[in-house]
Design brief:
Blueprint: H1 2-36, H2 41-46, H3 57-65, H4 71-102, H5 108-119, H6 123-136, H7 154-167, H8 170-178, H9 183-194, H10 196-212, H11 215-220, H12 229-237, H13 245-280
C-alpha cells in the first residue's frame, strides 16, 4: 500500500512540475513583451530577449503618444468593434444552432450542409466582393461594417450545434411550451444559460479574432479617427525614418491587455463546461 502511495505521489509531483514548466513557457513571451516596453530601441537591438526592466518606459510612451494618430482612439474603436461583434456572433450563432437542434423542418440537413460549405471558404476570397459592396453603399469608413458581418459565423454555429445537441434536453423545451412559454423566452431563459460554457469559449475566440483583425480594417478604414489599435501598431513598424521598437512593444502590450482580461473573466465558465462534460461522461 505504501509503495502505491509513493508511485501516486511521484506521478502527482511530475505532473505538477510539468504544469509549472508549461506555464513558464506560455508566460515567457508576455514577460519579454512587457519588459521590452520599458527598454530603448538600442537595448532591444543588442539583446532582443531580456527579463530585466529598463527605464525607458516614459520615453516609449511619449513616442507612442507623439505620433500623428491617437492610441486612445484606436483602443476605443477596437473595443467597440470587438465587444459588439462578439455579442452579435455569440447570440445569433447560438440562436441558429437552437433552430437546427430544436426544430424539425424539411431542409434542415441541407441548410446545415450549406453552413459547413461556407465555413470552408477563406475570408480573403470574398473580400473583393465585400469591399465593392461596402464602397457602393458608401460605408467604407463606418465601424458597423466591421461589426455586422459577425452575425454570420459558420464555425461558431457548428460549435454551438455540437455542444447544444447533448446539453439541451428537448423534453425541457416541450414542457416550457406546454406551460405557455414563447419561443424567444425559452431560448433566452432556458437555452442560453445552459450554453454559458460554450458561449464563453466562443466569445474568447471571437473577441481575440476581432481585436487582432488587421486585414479587413486596413482595407475599409482610411479615416485616422476610425483606425483600430492593430492598424496603429502596424504604422509604428512602418516608420520610414526609424522604427522605435520600445514604442512598438508598448503598443503590443496595450493590445494584449484586453485579451488577457477577457480570458480571465470568462475562464471560469470554460472550466465549468469541462467539469460538466466530465460528469456527463
Amino acid at each position: 500500500m505504501k509503495k502505491s502511495d509513493n508511485h501516486h505521489y511521484l506521478a502527482k509531483t511530475l505532473i505538477f512540475i510539468a504544469c509549472i514548466i508549461l506555464a513558464i513557457i506560455s508566460l515567457f513571451p508576455f514577460v519579454v513583451m512587457l519588459v521590452n516596453a520599458t527598454r530603448s530601441t538600442t537595448q532591444i537591438q543588442q539583446h532582443a530577449v531580456s527579463i530585466i526592466p529598463s527605464t525607458y518606459f516614459s520615453n516609449n510612451l511619449k513616442i507612442l503618444l507623439g505620433k500623428s494618430f491617437n492610441p486612445a482612439v484606436g483602443f476605443v474603436n477596437s473595443m467597440i468593434i470587438s465587444v459588439c461583434a462578439t455579442a452579435l456572433a455569440t447570440y445569433f450563432s447560438t440562436l441558429t444552432a437552437y433552430g437546427l437542434v430544436v426544430y424539425d423542418w424539411r431542409l434542415k440537413r441541407a441548410y446545415f450542409s450549406f453552413i459547413m460549405a461556407v465555413m470552408m471558404i477563406p475570408a480573403q476570397i470574398t473580400m473583393i466582393g465585400f469591399y465593392q459592396m461596402v464602397y457602393k453603399i458608401h460605408m467604407t469608413n463606418n465601424l458597423s461594417m466591421l461589426i455586422l458581418p459577425a452575425i454570420a459565423s459558420p464555425s461558431m454555429v457548428f460549435f454551438m450545434r455540437q455542444y447544444m445537441q447533448p446539453a439541451l434536453s428537448l423534453e425541457i423545451v416541450q414542457s416550457a411550451r406546454i406551460d405557455g412559454a414563447k419561443e424567444f423566452y425559452i431560448f433566452n431563459k432556458i437555452a442560453l444559460p445552459i450554453m454559458k460554457p460554450a458561449i464563453a469559449t466562443q466569445a474568447i475566440f471571437s473577441f481575440v479574432s476581432s481585436w487582432n483583425n488587421l486585414f479587413t480594417p486596413l482595407i475599409l478604414l482610411t479615416d485616422q479617427k476610425k483606425y483600430t489599435l492593430p492598424i496603429m501598431i502596424s504604422l509604428l513598424r512602418g516608420d520610414i525614418y526609424k522604427t522605435e521598437y520600445g514604442a512598438v512593444y508598448l503598443g503590443l502590450s496595450l493590445t494584449a491587455l484586453p485579451l488577457i482580461i477577457v480570458y480571465l473573466a470568462l475562464s471560469k465558465y470554460i472550466i465549468a463546461g469541462v467539469a460538466l462534460g466530465s460528469v456527463k461522461g
